[in-house]
Structures are given as structure tokens and as C-alpha cells.
Amino acid sequence: MEKEKKVNVPYSRCIIPIGPIYPALKEPININVTLDKEKITDVDIRLGYAHRGIEALAQKRNIIQSLYLVERVCGICSHSHGSCYIQTIEEIGGIKPPERAIYIRTIMMELERMHSHMLWLGVTAYGIGFDTFFMYAMRVREKVLDIFEEATGNRVQHSLNTIGGIRADLTPQIISKIQQLLLEVDKTVQFMLDVLNSTTVENRLKGIGILKKEDAEKFCVVGPLARASGVEYDVRTEDPYAAYGDFKDYFSRITSTKGDTYARAEVRTLEIKESGKIIRAILDKLPGGAIKVDGSALKLSRSIREGEAMTRVEAARGELFYYIKTDGKDGFKRVKIRTPTLANVICLKDLLLGLEVADIPVVVASIDPCISCADR
Fold it and tell me: Is residue 3 part of a domain?
């Protein structure tokens, strides 16, 4: 009987397209990964699948119309977009909202940070097989959205902001629900930290997708991604806005020096706890009084002079930047939006090089990309 001949077939390089439609991705992005055997040797990232031309659309609308438009940039951090936009308009117009309105805006920003981080932690846990963790995170996140709905009438695009203040006040009943929510958040965060410290999760997340501090500074990444690599930068403390200047001593800036996927999960989990501290401090010192300046929003918008201003806020994913130039006729000459994901996605190639295919979904998710924000 003739012996079987062994044929040695060398591994060849191949390109695997991931996306734009892919089960592990929440939004459309195309990542073409070049492999040599099982190792990633090159990464090509393509955006634009969620582009809606919001900057150009805003320049064709008046100030009030654009306020509702910019909240549609992102469904997760819509209040941050609306707040950054309205702060820029108020700076150009020299309008100072009442203190109560500023405090409530800040509470909503921190509730939004909570629900964004809860969503990210839940989806990431689901991606590595921890369905129970996912359910815990989503249960608390739903309660945050319920508070948004009761306070503003909407779960996603809240439309709380208006020129010179806010549209709706926080009632004693809503404040009581927020305080009860914070107690549950504390328990859930402790559960999440216990899960993160388990051997299974540590083995899956530690040591992959490492971004060193010098690389984080080189790529100019922002938010939890930067802080997990040792970059101690947070707009809330570096350039305080809204009510953060009055409460910067009530919370800590969470950082890590590890720079891996595990560090990014840990930073976001601990930031949820810090958001609770900020909200409690604001509720304890919430002033009474009006929630907006006198005059209709339409009248105020028509009083905005020709000018320009730049404002930034610390959204859930990092520094959100708005530049606006008004024409003095209730319109714009230029609206420019720089979102945190647009800054962070640049480092993705560096994070993936040298890893294996199985690591791609976890590492991509670890930067918490919001493609709607990046594409605008």
C-alpha cells in the first residue's frame, strides 16, 4: 500500500473584513484586518457609514432648530451635545443662566455618564460571555433612562436645554427617585468590581490592547481611554464648566497606569461611583429660584450678536468640542463639532497590531466607539 504523502502548505497572508455590519459592533464601521497566520499585521479603518452632515445642516437652520438637531449627533450622550452647544451660544450672547438651571444641567450630565458607562460595561461583559453582568448593568441603566423620561419627557433625546436655562425643573419626587437610584448604583458598582477582579475576567482582559502613556499623548486620545493609560486629564477639573467648578473637591479623577483593556473597564466602573458623588453633592446644595432667564427662547436667539466661541465638555467618552460662529441674524457662518470618538479611533490600529483575531471585538469595544458621533 502506497504511503500517504505529506504536503506542507505555508500560511499565506489574508485580509479579513470586519463590518460595516457585524454582530459585535453596535454601529457601522469597516475594519479590514491583515493577518499573518493568526497575528494581526495591519489594520485599515474606514468610517463614514453613519454620516448625516449635521454640521452643514445646522448652518442652514436657526439657533433654536439647531439645538434639537445637534442632540441627534448621538443617542447616548445627547445631553452633552446639547449642553456644549447651548453653552457656546450663551457665551456668544453673554447670557448667564440661573444657578439652579446650571446645577440641574450638571446632574443630567452625570446621569448620562452613568448610563453610558453601564451600557458599555454590559455590552462588553456580554461579548466575553458574562450574561449576568450584562443584565445587572442594563437593569440599572433602565432606571436612569426612566428618570430622564420623567424629568424631560424623553428617554434618549432629552431636549432639556434652552437658551438661558432649562425647560423643565426637578420635582421633589424626581429628586427622591435619583437618591434611591444612587443607593442601587453603589451596590451594582461593587458587584461589577467583584466580577472584574475574578480570575476569568482578568485572564480575558488583562494584557491585551495596551496603550502606553506616551502613545496616548502622541495620539491625543481623550476620556477614560486616556486616563486608563495614565494621562491625568479631565475637562471637568482642568477647565471647569457648568457647576463643576463648585464641586471639583467632591470627586476624584480616576486613572490607571496599566493601559490595557482591563484598565479601561476598571476606570469606567469607578467613574460611575464618582458620578454618584457629584450628584449627591449637587442635590445637597441645589439652590431654589428660576430655571431660565426672562424672555422667550426665540426672542433670545434673535438677540445673539455676530461672534464666535468655543466650548468643551467632558462627555462620557471624553472631551467634546464645539466651535460656533454666528452671523448675527439668528443663524450661523460655521458650526464645527469634534467628538471624542473621532480622537480615540485613531489609536485603534496601534492597539490591534500583534493580537489575534479573537481579541478584535473586545479591544474595539474597549475604546467605547460611538460611530454616530465620529461620522456626525
Answer: no
Distance of alpha carbon 289 from alpha carbon 274, whole angstroms:
27
Report the residue count for the chain: 376
pLDDT digits (tens, 9 = 90+) for 289-330: 888 888 777 778 777 888 899 999 999 999 999 999 988 888
68 SS3 class: helix
CA dist 61 and 66 (Å) reads: 6
Q: Across the strands, what pairs with 45?
A: 31
Q: What confidence score (pLDDT) does residue 338 get?
A: 92
CA distance 182 to 280: 8
CB atoms under 10 Å from CB of 184, counted, come to: 12
Q: Does the residue 6 lie in any domain?
A: no
Residues 58-80: pLDDT tens digits? 988 988 888 999 999 988 888 99
Q: What is the pLDDT of residue 250?
A: 86
- Tell me, yes or no, whether 176 lies in a domain: yes
Question: What would the grid cell of residue 71 be?
Answer: 442632540
Q: Which residue stretches of the chain are H helix? A: 54-58, 63-70, 78-93, 99-127, 131-152, 172-196, 199-205, 213-219, 223-227, 235-238, 244-247, 261-284, 297-302, 340-344, 348-352, 360-366, 371-375
Distance of CA 251 to CAs 68, 104, 148, 281, Å? 31, 17, 23, 9
φ and ψ of 75, to 5 deg: -85, -15
Amino acid at 201: V
What's the total number of domains in the chain? 1
Helices (H) and strands (E) in the chain, counts: 17, 8
Q: Sign of the C-alpha dihedral, residues 199, 204, 206, 207?
A: positive
Task: Give me the domain span that covers residue 235.
Answer: 14-375
Task: Return the pLDDT at 131.
Answer: 83
Single out the residue of 127, 193, 203, 133 nearest to residue 363, CA to CA. Answer: 127
Please check whether residue 266 lies inside any domain of the structure: yes
Cβ-based neighbour number of residue 196 at 10 Å: 18
CATH code for the domain in which residue 96 is found:
1.10.645.10
